[in-house]
Specification:
CATH architecture of the largest domain in chain A: Alpha-Beta Complex
Helix content of chain A: 10-25%
CATH class of the largest domain in chain A: Alpha Beta
Largest interface: A-B, 90 and 89 residues
Order of helices and strands of chain A: HEHEEEEEEEHEEEHH
Structural class of chain A: alpha+beta
Number of domains of chain A: 3
Strand content of chain A: 35-45%
Oligomer: homodimer
CATH topology of the largest domain in chain A: Nucleoside Triphosphate Pyrophosphohydrolase
Number of strands of chain A: 11
CATH superfamily of the largest domain in chain A: Nucleoside Triphosphate Pyrophosphohydrolase
Chain lengths: 221, 221
């Protein structure tokens, strides 16, 4: 892929004005074609005047001037938190049984059914943060921790990343976290995932995506 | 389920202090047991002193005092946007081919591979918003629009909802949206989803979750 990109970067010199309409449909099955589209169309806008316009205890909002390669200019805002992002953990008690939690969620003022998650502390790796959160929130550590995927929530206006971690070979362990009340831990079956995703207590997109990916990984192990 | 909850609400009167430790593991396969846990443990905290502490062009941040049923008190902050939420659309050109877009995303300063999405305008239903966004962003409308699921992004600190919509029986149509530059539309195959989710251009959790759910719905149609 690296060598293909080099070839395409070279080809780019001879290619101008390939856009013929407002809408493009590139077929990703055609890798050469896709590469050419990439080169022409994904030229990042230039950012300037980036400044913090509101900072609270938990949030930091930036505004920035965005100059697109076609000359259009816009002002964007984004959430730009400090830190190294968050982890979300899929803890498997066995190859089918996942441990989930009900946790009070201030944004929706509901108890949401979700996977264990938390911010990565300074100096921690994502896998270390995953194991710490598991021990604090569900009373288990994991002997086997595997990185699955880094996801975003709303990349249009949020800069933060969530690293999805699959936790297997669990062992009992516990530590005091910063939760205001004990979390309710519930077992669910990945073999029932097709029904589980319609549970109205389960709404968090990260959790749904992580469960599907974990199920496929375990199936292929 | 309603009648079961009524029974459980009655049973609750005779049940006190059922928590024996910091951690609970309820088996959701045992519905009676689950109901009892629900009644005891998911007593929503009381919110007070809710106020807007920062308002910008795109964001509104609230703070609130949260008093948990165990006596713990915390101060929370949350993003509380106006409006009726957003839609995210899975547009199927045929039963296997999904139309995705590359769009510049200010939060990550990257071109992200994702599904068409946008805010619901005043007076619009989610399905109407879905069709409008499709026409503006990918040059197709849909004769068949199906509600899939309402998802949250980070319910701990965000109040907004995204309604996932499956769009089928597409027809060509276009309208000018508010995009600063034309979007690049790319085809992907749901039959390749197991590989697609590892594409590093695809990070948005809502999009990944929606693709898995759409694939299962279409399989069962």
């Amino acid at each position: 892929m690296i060598s293909l990109n080099l070839v395409l970067a070279g080809l780019r010199l001879g290619l101008k004005n390939r856009q013929v309409g407002e809408k493009w449909v590139a077929d990703d099955c055609s890798y050469l074609c896709k590469g050419l589209y990439n080169v022409d169309m994904r030229k990042k806008p230039i950012l300037s005047n980036i400044k913090n316009i509101a900072t609270t205890q938990f949030f930091n909002i930036q505004s920035m001037d965005v100059a697109f390669s076609n000359g259009e200019k816009r002002q964007y805002e984004r959430l730009k938190p400090d830190g190294d992002g968050a982890v979300l953990v899929v803890p498997m008690l066995d190859d089918d049984t996942v441990l989930m939690i009900y946790e009070y969620s201030g944004g929706t003022h509901r108890y949401e059914l979700a996977l264990t998650k938390g911010k990565i502390d300074a100096g921690e790796s994502p896998l270390e943060a995953a194991n710490r959160e598991l021990i604090e929130e569900i009373g288990y550590g994991a002997k086997k921790l595997s990185f699955v995927k880094t996801m975003t929530l709303a990349p249009g206006y949020q800069s933060n990343f969530t690293h999805i971690v699959l936790a297997q070979d669990l062992y009992e362990d516990s530590a005091q976290g910063d939760e205001p009340e004990p979390l309710e831990v519930v077992k669910h079956k990945l073999s029932d995932l097709e029904e589980l995703v319609y549970n109205q207590d389960l709404t968090e997109a990260r959790t749904i995506a992580a469960l599907y990916m974990a199920k496929e990984i375990i199936k292929n192990q």
